[in-house]
């Protein structure tokens, strides 16, 4: 179908409800309930001879795999509800029919607002042809497009290049690092707008990567060595000052992968997932929660848990310790965690650690942080201050009703606990995303930083972590004056 994750989950429930009404009423209701409860754990429901299989990137690997496996019975027909992941990334055999909505969800950067929007957009004719090729790969197949012929031929012939719709800060930083000074006149295969380039320059200047003459600083050169968005690269560089390098590398690695917490759409499994996720939640917010998740996984799972040992004694000890742990797949299944995303974060963390440890002659940062920082040195307040220093451009304070003298105590309390926030830099009204660990917290933090601002039905902030308002003037006095932050 090529829909978004939210639409896939809604359509899955709608299709299941329709098939349930058509099912033979002679089936024992108790047996049916037990069967559906077991199937709900895997988010793949089989009813009335139809197996409903969602397929999107945030699903755990073992659940995605069900869409590729043959049904256990030849009398079962499989219905796969997929995002763009099925357009080019994967191939599912024996697909006979493709129903194409001719829509996709894309992330677009808005230079005016400085916000990234997740918008529903028409695909191109080239994408439509690619989708049609999903059917009939092993035998004759058919593609049904949900539009008129005139609407199809009004689509763009090819997909617009990504450089026209993303934040160009990383592109500008890389160009500067290889010695290209005039980024406006540089020969791009598809030239982006001057406004996009100037916005990227403004961001890099605010982060200290460029000086007043727009030349690359030493801080900027170090940022360019890290294969990350400049915001995250800046976070890692600042972590040395706050003595939390190891923890910040973990958090950045976890924040750069797709959804880690798997939340089944089915109410039976969702209740169990919520309970499993509770033990990882940190009062301070999403980024400390990611750190808690990673540390719990390393303690309790034997996934690449130790390096090669030189002695038989240490090998025996390692084997004994690993026997007490869960396998990676079992741990992720038990805790409703996306195992593939967690493994990817582990690899990113290793790569970033190697870059930090490598000598400057090998394009590294030459940091000896692993030998100088001990586990007991970690200070949560310093960690939060580092997040504040790195994400000060992405900070927001809770909206407060100024004229409260006519309100009752109950109304005042309701206003003080509002979930609405206003960004410090662009003054946009935003809300904490429902998947955040801070969503619905009582009482909500007064001031937060965030890693991502997206627009769907509302303006949402994700990767939200609480900070103290006065820290902003301390870590970024050129942006925030002390008197502006007094409450």
> What portion of residues is helical?
25-40%
Q: Quaternary state, please?
A: single chain
Give me the CATH superfamily of the largest domain: P-loop containing nucleotide triphosphate hydrolases
Might you state the CATH topology name of the largest domain?
Answer: Rossmann fold
Number of strands: 14
Number of helices: 19
**CATH class descriptor of the largest domain:** Alpha Beta
Rg from alpha-carbon coordinates: 25 Å
Cα separation of the termini: 51 Å
**Cα shape:** globular
Strand ordering within the main sheet = 5-6-12-13-10-9-8-11-14
Q: Give the helix/strand class.
A: alpha/beta
Which CATH architecture of the largest domain is right?
Answer: 3-Layer(aba) Sandwich
Portion in strands:
5-15%
Mean pLDDT over all positions: 84
> What is the number of domains?
3
As residue ranges, the low-confidence spans are 33-41, 305-314
Can you summarize the main beta sheet?
Answer: 9 strands, mixed
